[in-house]
Amino acid sequence: MKLRKSLFAGFFAIAASTLLAGNTLAADVYPNKPVTLVVPFAAGGPTDAVARLIAVPMGKELGQTVIVENTVGAGGTIAATRVARSAPDGYMIFIHHMGMATAPALYKKLNFDPMKDFEYIGQVVDVPMVLLGRKNFPPNNFKELEAYIKANKDKVTLANAGPGAVSQLCGLLFMSREGVELTTVPYKGTGPALTDLLGGQVDLLCDQTTQTVPYIKDGLVKAYGVTTPKRLPALPNIPTLDEQGLKGFEVKVWHGMYVSKGTPPAVVNKINKALNVALNDPEVKARLAESNIEIVPPAKRTPKGLQDHLDAEINKWGPVIRKAGAYAD
To answer: Which residues have C-beta within 8 Å of that of residue 29, sequence separation ≥ 6?
Structure first.
């Protein structure tokens, strides 16, 4: 009996040391070839812009080229499935926005599980949003907007960039908090939705600051409130929706970075270090600030920070989406 226990103890000790040695070896040799950073949207969009900006300094830190590759379709689920099924070696990294959290509720059939099929690298950036109205829309501030909606809810139109878009989710949350159902007008992208808002064809739109700040400053649209807990440096005179009565109202287009499940912890740590080096780069900071994109605090730029945030966001958006019946094709 003692001999058997001794043999088992020896076996587990060898297994543990082998695993530790393998993990250390993985870190020592990784990466020895170019790394692919998968973006689930077309080139030129906000997520793609962030990816291309941080890819260069990440590559310098890793000692290999980081190649940005766009895998487009189905709201990012095609790219997510591709990365989830890739080899767990750290050579295919995935960057995705909050769609990672909304996909389980939006899609009736999903080929990956955000909470089970990935290792988490860390959060990356947040992009704030603003609730906008057309230039000649009667309400001039948020209190007037609430009163106008209650009196004219059957006539007010709320644009969005299509099923699953953050603008749609922001609109759903707004309607839920206000207890109204407005006429929603889906578009194939934020660009055409914003164009029609500027042209006065629709009344309201919740959109990202990356493209709306110039229009707000030029008075081409009305801004009723920002969707962040605090006011934005770029729009210091625009109150938050939270301070105007919608307590806890927060919608940010947050981004996270992932690799496939089973990637060695040492490799995950290397990628995480490269991400943090990139986000601390002065040029990266300046470029992101110019686009009104916020780098998340260091505590969130960790595997646990991303895992906890993803879990909270899934629980936040799932009920909103299911209640509205806002399913994607």
So the answer is: none
Neighbours of 84 (CB within 10 A): 20
Residue with tokens 């899609």: 107
Contacts of 165 by beta carbon, 8 Å cutoff, 6+ apart: 190
**Contact in structure between 80 and 71 (CB atoms under 8 Å):** no
What residues does 134 pair with on adjacent strands? 221
Q: If we measure between CA atoms, which residue out of 67, 66, 58, 63 comes closest to residue 30?
A: 63
Cis amide linkage into residue 31, ω under 30° from 0: yes
User: Within 13 A of 192's CA, how many CA atoms are on the CB side?
Assistant: 7
* C-alpha distance from residue 319 to each of 37, 105, 311 (Å): 31, 8, 13
Residue type, 14: I
Contact 127, 292 (CB under 8 A): yes
* Strand 92-97 to 157-160 pairing: unpaired
95-119 tens-digit pLDDT: 999 999 999 999 989 999 999 999 9
Token digits of residue 315:
């629980």
Q: Find how far residue 326's CA is from the centre of its chain.
A: 19
Count of residues making up the chain: 329
Rounded Cα gap, residues 218 and 231, in angstroms: 19
Helix 282-290 vs helix 265-279: crossing angle, to nearest 10: 70
What was the pLDDT predicted at 27? 64
Residue 24 pLDDT grade (very low, low, confident, very high; cuts 50, 70, 90): low
For residue 202, count CB atoms less than 10 angstroms from its CB and return exposed for 0-12, middle for 13-18, buried for 19 or more: buried
Please report the domains of the chain, with CATH numbers, ordered by start residue.
16-126+254-324 (3.40.190.150), 129-226 (3.40.190.10)
